[in-house]
Amino acid sequence: MEHIVEIKNLTKSYNRKRALNGLSLNIEKGKVVGILGPNGSGKTTLIKILAGILRQTNGDVIIDGHKPGVHTKSVVSYLPDRNFLYDWMKIQDAIDIYKDFYVDFDQKKANDLLKFMKLESDMKVNDLSKGMKEKLNLTLVLSRKAKLYILDEPIAGVDPVARDQILDAIINNYEENSSMIITTHLVRDMEKIFDDVVFLSEGDIILNGNAEKLREEKSMQIDDLYKEIFG
Amino acid sequence: MFKYMKYELKGTYKFMLAIIFAVLFATTGIQFFINNKINDARNAMIMNYLPFLMMMFMLIIFGALIAATIFIINSYRKELYEDRGYLTFTLPLTGRQFLGSKLVVALFWYIAIAIALVIYNGILGTILFGNGWITQLFRVFNDYDFGIIAINNSIISILSSIITMLLVYFSITLSRVSFKNTKIGGIWFILFLLFKWVYSFLNHWIIIKLSDVDNLHSYMTSAISVPSIIFSIIVGIGLFLGTSYLIEKKIDL
After folding, report:
1. Which residues contact B203 (CB under 8 A, 6 or more apart)?
2. Which of A180, A132, A136 minimizes the C-alpha distance to A158?
3. Residue A38 pLDDT > 70, yes or no?
4. Which residues pair with A27 in a beta bridge?
5. pTM, 2 dp
6. Distance from CA of B101 to the nearest CA of A (A)
7. Considering only alpha carbons, which residue of chain A is nearest residue B84?
8. Cross-chain residue pair B253–A102, CB shorter than 8 Å
9. How many domains does chain A have?
10. ipTM of this complex > 0.95?
């Protein structure tokens, strides 16, 4: 089985506090993996290390055969949990910067997604509502034919209608041969798209496996399992 | 690198053009004021406050350069301290490409401000006062000492500007890497002053000790200090590589 991500004994400490505690995890190519856990469990820390914007204290991370760096940034499509676009930008500028820097950017897909999200290319990023910004960010990230998509809390803080629209966009636009890592604590809304799930608590993996098998073994939905573990 | 420079220019051009137009507007006012006074037969005292007007002229240029510098520094700090860094530092760019783009665009704007000022005021001055000033300027430059001093100082000023910008970038980056608490982000300025002092001290020492001159005055009026230029280039390369390394390998967002 080929792995797109290989993590061995990954540790991250902030001063004396450990955010990740010797975590090891492999992610298979073509799988959608849900990283589940409450706030402070280490989800975002793990994601940021994979995205190449945070350095680990110890351990190894390999993505597509490389350590996080320029190469991995060119094959990873990362959605942060915040608005990351420059404040002077219009939507067209955001599309342009993705087109310029990522050879895997698909302009047609971007146009279709903008239409689906009801966004106009001449809108200013700063004038968009929180939900619209979330949709724009997701449009940019999903318009790439990346080897690995990393989505950090893609539906947090948006209304239920926008939430459904974002979920539909993820399901319909994600590349079949790619892998996807999604962090969330809104498990009920997202569990149907996960192949595998990883339960994270205080920087440790406390349970992981195939989502369907876990449902059968535990005779409950992943959302109920989440509540049982963290409730 | 050129791709990123394009977005740097897009993000900065409105503010920089506003500075250029403001400076041109202010210097136009001064030139017209002088012209009106010269043409006014009742006011023969123009020469008395010409130095004051020239000082105003210099202050306007200095103010413009300060405003541009603050904007350029803030633009760099925002990459390291604000959410826009999540876009910049996930682009497939090396630290050198990122820093090189920032530096080239900053220098481009300084040069653009200087060229716009010189050309516009030269043309306006010629229209208002005739081209006598050009002849005078050539006469001054033909003077051997002044020509050497001007060329020498121009090279040193350009090199010094690059070193200063690199010191600023290095201090901000080092401060971000070493002191992750954003509340004390201003510590970069203390680091900058410290590094600037060390650089100036060593450079001065090299000029005095290693250059073939007896003192600073004769250095200024004789020739370029080759050891000082070499020292500055080495420091510049070191700062560039050091800052690029910190950006690529040590920055945590």
Report:
1. B228, B231, B232
2. A132
3. yes
4. A5
5. 0.86
6. 14
7. A84
8. no
9. 1
10. no
